[in-house]
Amino acid sequence: MSSELLTGSHNLDLNGSFSYDENWYIYEPMGDLDDMNREANSDCSPTVPYNLYHICLAPVSLVILLVLSLLIKRKHLYKNCLDGAPGLLSPVRFLEEEGNKGLTVAVFGILFSSLCVLVLDANPLPFVSSSSSRSREYWKIMALLYYPAFYYPLIACATVRHRIGYFFGCVLSWCHCVVHIWQKVECPESPKIYRYYSLLSSVPIILCLAFLSLWYPLQLVESFRRKGKTDEEVLGNGYYKEYLKNILAKRPPERNKAKPSVFSRFQSYLYSYIYTPQEGFQIPLKLVLSQAMAVIAVYQVALLLLVTFVPNIQIVRSGMTKDVTALLVQFGFIPSENAMGLPGDKELEIAKHYVWALEVCFVSSLVVSCLLTSSMLMRSLVRHRINLRRLYRGAVVDVFHRPRQLQPSQQALVCWMCFTGFQAAFTCLGLLIQQIVFFVCTVAFAFLVVIPLQSGTNMYLFKIAENMWPFWLTLVVSVLAQNLLTHFCFLERGPPPRELTNRRALYIVTYLLFPVNVLVGVLAGVWRVVVSALYNVVHFCQLDVSLLSHGAEAFDPGYRTYCYYLKIEVSQSHPAVRAFCLLLLQSQSTQGPKELQPSDIEEGVMLMKQPASKASHHKQNCARWWLAYTLLNNPSLLPYRKGVLLDGPANGMQTSPVKP
């Protein structure tokens, strides 16, 4: 009888255990599994193979770099040789506020997405068709250096700010974009991980290349419309002037506001997680780039987790048989109505339902992890703006919690260079850790609470709670009793400050409830561990928040990198300092307009156009008052003023050497 209940040739031995063939698991063909996880056709080869694509474009990119370097002049090394050409071609000016940030984000997005695909590729270098397991890691190291050089011309063509550079940018971006789209249209499926993983992971690359394919032609057309004007003149210094105007603008006095309601406080709390642009302030390029790479990291990690787990768990669910169900019944995971413990159709459906619950838990936890990570990244943008505004006005203690000098150093510059890479890496690790933690939590909640309530079986958690209800009741009553006694007996009633009363009774209650408070403390300790772990997991991707206390912040590499990044960013690209420098350059220029007078620049605040005649004594006094107001509200500008204002008579002072 028992042999008839089991399918296939699986029999019950003398010890009551099941004996199976060696290949009893789901490797046997079952139904339409090929339709669910159909392997991609490995014979698909695009018209332009990946190797040929790199072999053709790599020399072209090298030639373009050499041509563009001829348009750059050297500043220090053998300036008279060949009229200063060729020069060093920099990819992007990271410490400049003016410029197109979308171009930088697009090129870095292409590079980062390529590296994400590279990590899982068996052949990391396109020139190496087959690599052994021993040499594969060395080829990956070479690929980490090859891909930045391969995509270097895409961003260097815009740095030259010349028509030739824009033309080369058009050619390169069109070639890259057409080849990528052509390859994915011809071979959308691939045998790696999941048949559509290669296509989905290339979406950021295609979008960024499409942006470059539109941006470079627009810049080329715009260069012909300028009629001889250089890009330096067109870019101007609008942001720095706008920033200085904004901080010097008169603001209405703040009125005494009533105490905010609960709804308004909740609304302001939600707004703290939503970044909205503010007039007169721009997020630096490095921060914009870091946040963009973090978003791409979220997409790539979430895609990899999704295509790795969901198709495989669907195969397991479709291939679930009574043989596998019998194993689950023997371990007690699935209840059986049969006296012999042999599975039937009902047990098989329960097993499939359990596997489906695992899939739902995984997808739900992945969605929650992505939403939390995105909200934390948005919150980071808000905090970046707050911290930069504080440092711009000299409130160093409000940001670093202790006095620090905003000066470049070796460690600060290294951290500034690593900041974008750290943000992308921390986002990847944070999302992965969140997925693991939330998946375990959702599975525990589903199989210990939801499924037992639905089926009425496996009520282990409820049985434990039922047996321990006197213990939980004692703890709850003791906590309530202490709060009620404190409110009605041990504190005087009336306006604050309130004094202690009934001290003898207070001492007696404290002594008697000591054992109970030990148990309460154990639960509080467990809760502390859970809350601190969840807080650190959720905020792991935020470099602006230290996961350690104020005394141990130096041991947090992410927060330390962020602090040093702020030092370099504020000391090298302070908007007010750059506005003063640009005004000085405009006043000393012999070719540019001369609306700005030297006295206006030395005072640092007269941003509006002045007449050519000498300013009156009244205007000079107003300018001095504005200077004092600016320095009072921006103490960080004092060291810069000492180094720049060497012409004392312009301010009515005696000339004397500047003391350090």
Descriptive account of the structure:
There is one protein chain. The chain is mostly helical. 63% of the residues lie in helices and 1% in strands. The protein contains 26 helices and 2 strands. The chain has a two-stranded antiparallel ribbon. Strand 1 and strand 2 form a beta hairpin. Helix 4 runs antiparallel to helix 5 and helix 13 runs antiparallel to helix 15. The longest helix has 48 residues. It is flat and about 85 Å long. The termini are far apart. The N terminus and C terminus are likely disordered.
What keywords describe this structure?
mainly alpha; 660 residues; 26 helices; 1% strand; two-stranded antiparallel ribbon; 63% helix
Could you name the ranges where pLDDT drops below 50 across 5 or more consecutive residues? 1-41, 228-236, 590-615, 642-660
How confident overall, as mean pLDDT?
77
How many distinct helices?
Answer: 26
Major sheet summary line: 2 strands, antiparallel
Strand order of the largest sheet: 1-2
Short description:
By secondary structure, the chain is mainly α.
Give a topology summary.
Elements: H1 2-5, E1 11-12, E2 18-19, H2 33-36, H3 50-69, H4 101-119, H5 133-150, H6 152-159, H7 163-186, H8 197-201, H9 203-225, H10 231-235, H11 238-248, H12 262-271, H13 285-318, H14 322-330, H15 345-392, H16 396-400, H17 410-455, H18 460-467, H19 469-488, H20 503-512, H21 514-538, H22 557-572, H23 575-588, H24 598-603, H25 617-633, H26 638-644
Helix pairs in contact: 3-6, 3-7, 4-5, 4-9, 4-13, 6-7, 7-9, 11-23, 13-15, 13-17, 14-15, 15-17, 17-22, 19-21
